[in-house]
Amino acid sequence: MTPRKPAAAKQPVTKLFILDTNVLMHDPTSLFRFEEHDVYLPMFVLEELDNGKKGMSEVARNARQASRFLDAIVSETASDISQGIPLNTQGNKAATGRLFLQTQFIEHELPASLQHSKADNAILGVLMHLQKKQPERAVILVSKDINMRIKARALGLSAQDYFNDKVLEDTDLLYTGVRELSADFWDRNGKDMKSGTQGGYTFYQLKGPDCRDLLINQFVYQENGDSPFYAVVTAQDGNTATLRTLTDYTHSKNAIWGITARNREQNFVLNQLMNPEIDFVTLLGQAGTGKTLLTLAAGLMQVLEDKVYSEIIMTRVTVPVGEDIGFLPGTEEEKMTPWMGALDDNLDVLNKSDEESGEWGRAATRDLIRSRIKIKSLNFMRGRTFINKYLIIDEAQNLTPKQMKTLITRAGPGTKVVCMGNIAQIDTPYLTEGSSGLTYVVDRFKGWGHSGHITLQRGERSRLADHAAEVL
Fold it and tell me: Could you say which of 22, 124, 210, 340 is the most buried, measured as most Cβ atoms within 10 Å of its Cβ?
């Protein structure tokens, strides 16, 4: 009896993703983000890219870049465009699928009440046609437009958001920079512990299974009643880690420009800001947690007292909360003044000096401080290099990852960059907590030896502000 030949393994059917225009305008590299799956671009998408390419905005730049990618892909192929163009022609080895362009007019069966001339409806018509033409295959619309996705699902079509730009699906998993040690931590990891003192700090060299989960410059703590333990991870390799005790900035003898830390996280923040070995600091926290005040106090101390940096440069994203009030008169610094209300509020706190100095002394101090703080606009950052500066980026949650890269790469020798923000207060369209540039850099920089991050938990502004943050 002749044995039967085993059936040939069934090849997995790849998916076909139809990209909406807003996906390409948000991330031009999205063409190469779908791995082995195919990408389809309707003709209306190409027309909308052409209409949106004019101007100097981030969206217009992305539209032009997407068009360049498409031109390069189409130019390099010698095969019939209607059969699909390999996406790995641009050296993108991860993209093994094919790009399909709409090459013929499609008769769609959308409801008569929908305007067929509208771009969104035309794209939905293409989606419906392809789904009927290839029933064995998953045909999915990818769009950043919520209403577009809802409309597609209402018509029985598959649609999803563009997820590749999201660092995390759940921001509750975002790195906080702080870790509480378990009650049995020392029993599990401190059997072969070595300790020593250097430069006024105590170092603990540990070995155990929990050391694998620690990251460099991560703060650890253990609340033991009257003798709490606070430390920072200075080295980590496999099952070994080194912890170093901290400077206690909650004590008045270690006050920074008259400011002392009011809680555990603020103490951690000042330890990072005052550490010359840390070049990049990110601070997250709701309104009133002290991000700007602590950053300015540490900056003034290191610029005016310790002479570590030559001056403070402060910038922020100019995205209004409500309606835009229009163009502002004056120089670059005068135009930025209305956006820097937080700076003035915190300088009022830091300018409080002894009554003995009198009105003249306070005025002189205020003028000295303002002479060392420069306010700059993000619009003119490209091409600049900041040497020996203390650079503060406020409201960084409104930056895209690309804008964040542009800013951080401005840092020259001896410059420290501090990014602050609250990812719960994003005012930029198409940015979410998961795709914000601030979330992006927090995740990418964690564990680097010259960067640190702290998520501030407790508000210190007022009991009214704290209660409003919780209940509103």
Answer: 124
